[in-house]
């Protein structure tokens, strides 16, 4: 039976695998398992993917995966922006810190694409498979336990049960599965939070990613054709102080950081137009228990530095499907297989987080407490003068420490 997309909230089903969360990790995992003939159901708490202020960076490692899936041409038809370099503008000039144009392969660039377009493409492809089910508007509130405490599925907010041989938590940094399992994490902390908002974009504005650095932090403007999705970085826990100073003061801060937007800051008409992202950086000590596995942000919340969170989650999903899929399809899966996923993905996760922690400590945190003009730091001047280092930075960000393949 071809289940495809199930619009109903009433889900009382059984499956080989229950994936909780319809983000990049969950949808990719569901697609890859279904391609192997594994009966998989993906539970997504929202009615659609159309939510703003989600990660938009699709890196070369993920673009290569789409090619392997035969979806490269379909993705290219979506309204994305290709960026072959990352630059940062300080008070005394602009420097290039990563050069993607010399990366090997068919995609020497980062693609900025609204996440809903990315997820719609994958979900539409998965819906063609007879063993894939995507159930929307269904929020998971608890895990189900069987004999010996083994996880045997989940319970939804309307008290329905989804039972499965394996439950995979892909429900992000606020993971319900993670909380209900009571798994311990190593917290690394973060010096910043992020305020997201949008303003219109006009002809002649910067293309791609525009990063502006100054006293008190930095701001990124992501080109979405007719508007910018903007991220204003503030000190950790500083949102209440920003609000107390008033919306006009916040608009002035936007204009000071990005002068070309000075006549558009009024488009941020109320605090309802501003979303707070509370930044976390952590990693679970154990990614699995009998019957359940966590991947992506549910297993390791990433800092937004480098925009690598989506791509690391996708790599987790690819590794999970490749390692567990054959055994699940053959009916030989055992809980001992789950540790293999963590062994495969722990190293690239730890290395990536180490780089983010270094950037937070050496770059972001000092910037958040500076006053007066902010000049280009010495290490970034060195990057700007050394093409080889720019290519190395692009490889680490764009391809990752251990890129996965089908």
Question: Please, could you describe this protein's structure?
Answer:
With 406 residues, the chain is of the alpha/beta class. Helices cover 33% and strands 26% of the residues. It is built from eleven helices and 21 strands. A hairpin with a 5-residue loop joins strand 10 (140-145) and strand 11 (151-156). Helix 1 packs parallel to helix 4 and helix 1 runs parallel beside helix 8 (309-330). The longest helix is centred in the C-terminal third of the chain and has 31 residues, at 338-368. The radius of gyration is 21 Å and the shape is globular.
List the helices and strands and how they pair.
Blueprint: E1 4-6, E2 13-20, H1 24-35, E3 40-43, E4 57-58, H2 60-68, H3 72-76, E5 81-83, E6 85-90, E7 93-99, E8 110-112, H4 115-126, E9 132-135, E10 140-145, E11 151-156, E12 161-169, H5 176-181, E13 185-187, E14 192-200, E15 209-214, E16 217-223, E17 227-235, H6 239-245, H7 247-257, E18 275-277, E19 282-284, E20 288-289, E21 292-294, H8 309-330, H9 338-368, H10 378-385, H11 387-398
Parallel strand pairs: 1-9, 2-3, 2-12, 3-9, 6-15, 12-21
Antiparallel strand pairs: 4-8, 5-8, 6-7, 10-11, 11-12, 13-19, 14-17, 14-18, 15-16, 16-17, 20-21
Helix pairs in contact: 1-4, 1-8, 8-9, 10-11
